[in-house]
């Protein structure tokens, strides 16, 4: 069936760099009647992992089975499931409560630069679109307001009560006079 059996797998998802070890643990009351299986994500192939090799080891204890891959490679990508033995002989599929392993690679400088260039291009495009989507409605609104002012001749209701304040212009400013301070003529500023 597709339901999870009375086992607990830990962890449920692992993403690790190539050539590092990974450990999966299956907690069960019957570790000697259980075994590990591997299935690829895009395939129906089911691999039985039942004995130690130079690539991985299986260790059974009283209430768990420990599965360790010494140095993961890209071929180790897949879903690892702890289920009862002899599923392949019975032509059955393991349950769907497995652990997914993703092997991550090392990025080189060229890949990082191309990703950064792509991110920069996306940011620039987003900025341009943001300016367009903000400015176009504002321009349409201002055009509509100016049309309503020119057609009616009246000040729109939102502009009533606003007054233009008188401000001094450049011509209204008196020229600067060079006035000498009292103390420069002989008096001390502290004296009265």
UniProtKB/TrEMBL annotation:
Transmembrane annotation, as ranges: 121-142
Primary residence: membrane
UniProt domain Immunoglobulin: residue ranges: 11-104
GO molecular function: identical protein binding
Annotated Gene Ontology cellular component terms: B cell receptor complex; external side of plasma membrane
Membrane topology term: Single-pass type I membrane protein
GO biological process, one term: B cell differentiation
Keywords, alphabetical: Adaptive immunity, Cell membrane, Disulfide bond, Glycoprotein, Immunity, Immunoglobulin domain, Membrane, Phosphoprotein, Receptor, Signal, Transmembrane, Transmembrane helix
Location of this chain's protein in the cell: Cell membrane
Quaternary context: Heterodimer of alpha and beta chains; disulfide-linked. Part of the B-cell antigen receptor complex where the alpha/beta chain heterodimer is non-covalently associated with an antigen-specific membrane-bound surface immunoglobulin of two heavy chains and two light chains. Interacts with LYN.
Role noted for this protein: Required in cooperation with CD79A for initiation of the signal transduction cascade activated by the B-cell antigen receptor complex (BCR) which leads to internalization of the complex, trafficking to late endosomes and antigen presentation. Enhances phosphorylation of CD79A, possibly by recruiting kinases which phosphorylate CD79A or by recruiting proteins which bind to CD79A and protect it from dephosphorylation.
Full protein name: B-cell antigen receptor complex-associated protein beta chain
Source organism (scientific name): Fregetta grallaria (White-bellied storm-petrel)
Protein's gene: Cd79b
């Amino acid at each position: 069936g597709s339901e999870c059996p009375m086992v607990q797998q830990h962890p449920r998802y692992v993403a690790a760099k190539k050539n590092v070890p990974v450990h999966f643990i299956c907690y069960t009351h019957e570790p000697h009647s259980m075994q590990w299986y591997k299935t690829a994500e895009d395939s129906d192939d089911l691999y039985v992992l039942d004995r130690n090799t130079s690539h991985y080891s299986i260790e059974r204890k009283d209430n768990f089975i420990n599965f360790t891959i010494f140095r993961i490679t890209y071929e180790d990508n897949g879903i690892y499931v702890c289920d009862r033995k002899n599923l392949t002989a019975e032509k059955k599929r393991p349950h769907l409560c497995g652990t997914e392993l993703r092997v991550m690679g090392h990025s080189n400088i060229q890949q990082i630069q191309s990703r950064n260039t792509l991110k920069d291009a996306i940011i620039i495009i987003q900025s341009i679109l943001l300016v367009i989507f903000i400015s176009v409605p504002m321009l349409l609104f201002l055009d509509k307001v100016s049309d309503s002012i020119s057609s009616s001749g009246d000040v729109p209701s939102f502009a009533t009560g606003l007054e233009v304040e008188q401000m001094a212009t450049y011509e209204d400013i008196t020229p600067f006079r060079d006035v000498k301070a009292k103390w420069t003529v002989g008096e001390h500023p502290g004296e009265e």
